[in-house]
């Protein structure tokens, strides 16, 4: 499955500075609503889902979070990429009490629920690869980042 079309140059922040994950979710949700990618309900839904089903992932090389919510809140599929200037605490996936300091966030907006598991798996696999992390971490330019991510998530089908 090819996921390269889910990345948009104007849906990424490569030097973001937020005080809390709540502030980040509010900012991103407002931007996504304004660009007609999500319903108004997206903000409350993603904040609530993150509280109940944490998405922090500690990999060998980088701590990431992959927040997502139900497809009914999404109008157009996307992946919103955020590289944080200062890490934010997220609960680790499948825990209720283990916090990790996340410095990269991929917010997923999926329309087809059957593709969500495959996309999550692909993202997790990429963030376990040292060469991917090294290249991803070195990029601070949106044009280079969109090219890199689209190549990395393009299927060879």
TrEMBL record:
This is PTS galactitol transporter subunit IIA. It comes from the Bacteria. Residues 5-152 form the PTS EIIA type-2 domain. CDD domains: PTS_IIA_fru. It comes from Robertmurraya siralis. It holds the Pfam family PTS_EIIA_2. InterPro entries: PTrfase/Anion_transptr, PTS_EIIA_type-2_dom, PTS_SugarTrans_NitroReg.
């Amino acid at each position: 499955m090819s996921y390269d079309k889910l990345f948009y140059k104007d849906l990424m922040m490569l030097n973001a500075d937020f005080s809390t994950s709540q502030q980040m979710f509010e900012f991103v949700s407002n931007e996504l609503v304004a660009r007609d990618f999500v319903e108004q309900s997206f903000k409350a839904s993603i904040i609530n889902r993150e509280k109940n089903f944490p998405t922090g992932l500690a990999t060998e090389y980088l701590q990431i979070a992959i927040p997502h919510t139900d497809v009914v809140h999404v109008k157009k599929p996307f992946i919103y990429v955020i590289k944080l200037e200062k890490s934010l605490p997220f609960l680790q996936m499948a825990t209720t009490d283990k916090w990790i300091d996340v410095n990269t966030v991929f917010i997923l907006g999926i329309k087809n629920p059957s593709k969500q598991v495959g996309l999550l798996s692909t993202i997790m696999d990429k963030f376990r690869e040292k060469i991917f992390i090294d290249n991803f971490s070195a990029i601070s330019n949106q044009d280079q980042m969109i090219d890199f991510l689209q190549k990395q998530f393009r299927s060879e089908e």
